[in-house]
User: Fold these one by one.
Assistant:
Number 1:
Amino acid sequence: MPLQKPEPVIAVVGSLNIDLIAYTARVPGAGETVIGDRFVMGFGGKGANQAVMAARLGAHVSMVGALGDDVYAGMTVDNLIAQRVDAAHVARVAGSSGVAPIWVEPDGTNRIIVVPGANDEVDPAVAAGAVRALRPAVVIGQLEIPQAVTAAAFRAAREVGAATILNPAPAAALDPDLLAGADWLIPNETEFAILAGVEAFDPVDDSALAAFARRIRARFVVTLGSRGAAVVTTSGSVERVPAIPVKPVDTTGAGDAFVGAFAFGLAAGLDELGAVRLGIACASDSVTRLGTQSSFASRDGAAAIVARVLGGA
Ligand code: RIB
């Protein structure tokens, strides 16, 4: 069955970073220096990554955010344009753009420090105005820009009838205003445990997921790494979608591939399980390649993933 809306309009209100990725046999301890294997500079930021994934799948995506006045700003805008993401709502402010030093170990696991820079300067009224002007089907937000900005953008989304997806990453206590404006919440398992106040979350146990879903207004999907993802249905039951078995080389940005693809799926007319399957397929694919946006499927690759998911293979 073809997608109902193969080119939906999506707005991503969020972060843009330059990723400075070191691949290393092991990460250093305190006071220690280790020699790494490889270094890559790439385009990242959870917001920009999600925008790029949705654009590769065929959405018309606009990025709403801010860059600094440094050398990274121009190259980041050029990258958005090359990725066919509209950069007209990316402001330029004084100071540094966002950067993210990242360490990746041989099993693909990563450790990330985000230094937000310009991401902290996104203006709430400007972000809300952009959403009103764009009239998207879906607005996506994360926690790498101030929560009040995303809350304002989500209020504007409601005015124009857009669905809102909050990826509460990196983990933080949520502003009640922001949570109230989210139609979908997509944490990973660490973020879920913090949000739900669960001390030892057992990822195979449905009861904590179902209990949390009863406490919030938003619909709820949790990503579980190599275990795939779980979605709590409207009737309160937990449906699980397994990950596709792959050999991971770099998991950086896999959660963003999931969120961008899930948003595309919903906006394109898939039901929630179809959107989760598309998210899992794109995230599993991304961990087989190095880097963040550079690890995401190409437009042709993304089209092949859509065809596989729609075909049920
Ligand atoms: O989710 C991965 C992303 O987190 C990286 O691109 C990095 O910039 C941080 O935002």
Number 2:
Amino acid sequence: MTESKNLWGGRFTGKADEGFVRFNRSFGFDRRLFDVDVAASLAHCEGLRAAGVLTDAESSQIKNGLRTIIKRAETDSRYFDDLPSEDVHSFVEARLVQLIGDTGRKLHTGRSRNDQVATDLRLWLRAEIDRTQEKLIDAQSALVELAEKHSAAAIPGYTHLQRAQPVLFAHWCLAYFEMLERDRERLSEVRKRVNVMPLGSAALAGTAYRIDRELVARELGFEDVSRNSLDAVSDRDFCIEFIGAASILMLHLSRVAEDIIIYSTAEFGFLELSDAVATGSSLMPQKKNPDSMELVRGKSGRVFGHLSALLATLKGLPLAYNKDMQEDKEALFDTVDTVTASLEVTATVLRNVRVREERASEAAARGYMNATELADYLVRKGLPFREAHDTVGRLVLRAIERGVELQDLELDEMKSLSPLVKEDVYEALSLEQTLATKSQVGGTAPERVAEAIFAARTRLSSS
Ligand code: ARG
């Protein structure tokens, strides 16, 4: 095992403290940037060649060397471990010099690790955003599948976690579909700002070589080049934005999780998780626990933590680069890992949940959730809504006293509170009617929900 020489030895005469060396090192985690670091180096090399800084021969030697490094890393499982390095950038350079000799030392001309790391992070994050989008689409598909499979089932809708009005179970599914749809939009917005190239900013002041930055950007698939070198090496707002969008996404998943957890209790009993995504208790033999969803709910907190950590890390930093910024990586990496795993597990749970349609629909038809419907019925017969509300309130009170539902009250009894009530009230009070009347765009009427399912499918297939 050979210790790679660090990149800045010349000015130093003393030996570094071992503890500090370990503390300073980011290679333990930033090796994840290896592929993009090499890709950025390939493009930089081309920039140097086009600028006449490197000869064609030197540039091909460097490029071949870099390609060999990539291959070695793929095949040799100890490749990263037998050359301890300060960070991924030092590692790549050390490997290159080891492989091709002194020409390798020319690669760092006109760049700094400061613009390098910002470039790497953006390249890495861009690809991860694309992967996250795919996971999001899959979770959305799982929601649509579930909605389609149970398109006729109703559940109680809640406000304040008190039974409010019945809704279709598919409507519940599509509520989360919409939230995830906005998450996708947010991520594509973030991607636009991620896709800007800092390379060429060098340490902070810009590069002294006539490197065609546009050319380098094209090589790397960047949409644009950064316009201010101080800004380009200093800011991590693209990471914060991503973690912000990821936080909202995790918040949505956490709410899905919470609903599923509650709905699978004996008390609610609308859902049952399959054995594939539940666990048992080491002590209580009867238990079936929704650990999968609890972990998604729990892990959301961790992503929110990364968001505030990064905000706090950056808030007091003077321009330009400061080593504090090395702290961005673990927050970003863990956010991506957490979001990816949470999206995958959520999709799996959604595909492994049994909907107890009968029990859910029965619950949806009880608990006076048709009271608003009765008020609307009276409104249709000409009563002002406020009066209708009051009349129905009194009817509900009566029904509660009797221990029956509104639809179980005798017609005469209803009439005694409002002469507007006619025989057709019973039809109005049915679950079917209660759902069917919510027929404006965005409502839970079956025809609207069927359209919404279709629209959701179309959106998914066009993305
Ligand atoms: N490992 C460093 C980071 O992650 C790379 C940049 C180092 N730059 C420097 N001037 N020390 O931020």
